[in-house]
Design a protein that fits this description.
Elements: E1 3-12, E2 18-26, E3 31-35, H1 52-67, H2 75-86, H3 96-113, H4 118-126, E4 134-141, E5 154-159, H5 164-186, H6 208-220, E6 227-232, H7 245-254, E7 257-261, H8 269-279, E8 284-287, H9 295-304, E9 309-312, H10 314-317, H11 320-332, E10 336-340, H12 350-357, E11 362-364, H13 371-387
Parallel strand pairs: 4-11, 6-7, 7-8, 8-9, 9-10, 10-11
Antiparallel strand pairs: 1-2, 2-3, 4-5, 5-6
Helix pairs in contact: 2-3, 3-4, 4-12, 5-6, 7-8, 12-13
Amino acid sequence: MTTADIRARPVLTSRGTWTVAVYVELSDGTVAVCAAPEGKSTGAHEARVVSPTRAVQAVEGELRPALVGRNWEDQEKFDRELLTLDGTEDKAHLGANTLIALSVANAKAHAQRKRMPLWRLLAAQGGFAPSLPHILSNMVNGGVHAGSGLPFQEYLVIPQVAHLEYAIHILVRFYQELGEVIAARCGAQATAVGDEGGYTPRCENPLEPLEYFEAARKKLRLEEELIHYGIDVAASSCTAKLPGHIFYGELVRNRRVRYVEDPYGEDDFTSHAALVRALGACAWVVGDDLTVTNFTRMAAAHEARAVNGIIIKPNQVGTLTETLKAVRKAREYGWKVIVSHRSGETTDTYLADLAVAVGADGCKIGAPARGERTAKYNRLLEIAGEME
């Protein structure tokens, strides 16, 4: 089955900025589309992105002539060709945003042609055992994702239940109750939402959102063991003085924080490693800006024993094949795998399929609010039904 046509156009993200969507049409008439997400809090070592205008020009001018008329059912072969056409180590020529949109659109087209869900195709291609992930729901936004002055970027609620629909039910109730708690304590304006759907209360003390979480949990009469909390410090974007190991240890011991992402700067492997040693198996210490889904950065983190978990963001690296290889390498290292959205999302739901396909331990998809986030919640529910 050959590729009949490839097209691209600019589309809007949830942040009101432009990104690129790529359409792949097969010779039997099957058409699939993928819209690349856009990150606002980006690591310095991520693959490069290009402007949407340049991305459209790249697809129409360089990629279409090279790809149309050939059979690209072999996703790894397709992605190798994309990397050859780009010809740079950091995707600076064609852009990681261009490549990931085209890579995923190709996989979607062949999954549709075979009448199988994308997660099943990716699991088979990557040799993974698919499973439903825990959801890490970003309920309070700070840092560069909100204008509230809150120094840390994300405050996460993580249900500790196996049944996906029940987990989402807990998150929806929690989100609604949390809104009432924040409105009562901070005023209705504090329930405005940030880039990922979380509330934006003004609080300089980074512990306040956890206090709001506890108030909401108690009002809902949810037992402690049903809910864990997490924080994404996004240290490289944080303008406040970063706390030390003792502070994070207190969060783990006394605040039920079991997930700490990017607690130190994106090149500070030493401090990350010291925190992993300090916390042991009590919490996931997760790299995002530190590792950026990049094999070299991952190897350095592994050698330093700097993390025990990793964020996987496909557009940080550029193709599905590289993404799947990064997951396999993370598993070799014994790390937890968390597949993650970006701040500037579209309603594309391929991320949910990817999380299930690789059997991710967690999936970050934002708060259960805003269409670009709820689309991914709803896709996870659909997948749960497909797996029955």
